[in-house]
Amino acid sequence: MGIFDLFKKKEVVFEDLDLSWMQVDMHSHLIPGIDDGSKSMEESLGLIKRLSDFGLRKIITTPHIMSEYYRNTPEIINMGLQDVRRAVKNEGIEIEIEAAAEYYMDEIFLEKVKSGEELLTFGPNHILVETGFINKPQMLLETFFQLEMAGYKPIFAHPERYQYLISDKKLLEDLVDRQISFQVNLLSLTGFYSKQVKDFAEMLLERNLVKFFGTDCHNPRYLDMLETLTRSKSYQKIKEIEILNSSL
Description:
The protein is α/β, with parallel strands linked by helices. The chain has a single domain (20-247), classed as TIM Barrel, CATH 3.20.20. The chain is 35% helix and 14% strand. The protein is built from 9 helices and 9 strands. It has helices at residues 41-53, 74-91, 107-115, 140-149, 163-166, 169-177, 195-206, 220-226, 235-240; strands spanning 24-25, 58-61, 64-65, 96-99, 102-104, 126-130, 153-157, 181-185, 210-214. The longest helix has 18 residues, at 74-91. 35% of the residues are buried.
């Protein structure tokens, strides 16, 4: 060995991404052409194949339902689901596919809950809900209350991404006290969204407040970045904590 060899940097080899511990991805946008997710069936199949190769046994894909932008209905989503299932079967991809929705919490959604309109759920009556990223909705706590009164088990999608929640410690504690289930995006732990989001996600992990993980996969770029998760200091921890994905 020459003297200069002592100063050469040792190449770091990262392990391949393994999501078999999670078993079920319960947040993604893989029905083509109905929201801001996959744009074609070809793209959907490519994403589903990659998710299967990561070790998942099941995908519950969750298209947006937003009154102003994505006016999806249970009928539209279920029709899209059947198309995806047929295509997955024809491709010989070994993975189970179901669908629910990611509901945007606004006044119109609250009225749907109060009126008893059909809503898409998964598992033991779980319903995935989200808000805008900047401002706290006026009806946030009221909507959670009405969902619970109607027999639903709400899951708050990617709370680590909401600026209003990051800056409002009291609101976070209110949600914790009400035992609202938090779903963190795996991508948040890679720094994909921002360092602030990453730090908040890590804090939720440290406090054992995370009940579900999801990929929130929209397109190939998401999975490209997801493959860097193995470099995160949280990668080993998330494989060891008790989550509920596998029960779905």
